[in-house]
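User: Structure please.
Assistant: Input sequence and predicted structure:
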Amino acid sequence: MQDTVGIFVLGTAGCGKSTLVAAMANWMDQGGLPNQIVNLDPGSDLIPYEPDVDVRDWITLADVMEEYKLGPNGAQIVAADMLAIYKSRIKSSLDLTDEKYILFDTPGQMELFTFREAAKEIVSSLVPQSYLLYLIDPFNARTPSGFVSQLMLSSLSRLRFQIPSLEVLSKADMMDPEMIERINRWQNYPDILMNDLLEETRASPSLSTELAVGINRTLEDLGVASKLFPVSSANGTGIDRIYEVVQLTYGAGDDLPVSDGDLDESMPL
């Protein structure tokens, strides 16, 4: 029997983490895959799922603000660090007895999770095997610099947690044809992305051409952009491919049929 696999869903605020977690859990339920949902965001108000484990049972942003006399920003930092304190309680609440997937919905402000040491401790210790799913919001990637910045954040997250990872484009159902064509072009033709990036930096004195080019070349060497594919929580696009990638990484869930998509090809838009 394979060990339980934890999928940590990460991304910038508003990229659709919670809705994708809900959609993935529903997809797994329909396919007969045992799963649990864990909410790791002490500041969340309304979430589109019923969590099996909820960090708000021990920490809430409102309680931290009141106890420590902090504003929302300071309270979010304290709450993020307090996750490590409650690590044992969170872990003891998980069902690790059967082969299953545990979906972790991370805090809305990704920097509070990615760049705090408490988060590294959480990711490395809660489940035997962990996977990082990074959501790129296409609306924050409409310009060359925006696209490169999103890929950079994803690469930094990968560097911080050092676990297998996958980057996907969220909100595929909301992408208009022009956006699809533009991102697909940047993804498949790095030279076009470089040229568009140079044009943007020349038109904006606030952008550093040397920095933009250097970052883009680094990301090209890492091969991040070539692995993107679209995902939609609304219609389920791409969820099967997420499962395939995780399954091929850890060998879990072999009883569930997977799609016929080629995992090595670029974003099939």
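Residues 5-138+162-173+227-250 form a domain with the Rossmann fold fold (CATH 3.40.50.300).
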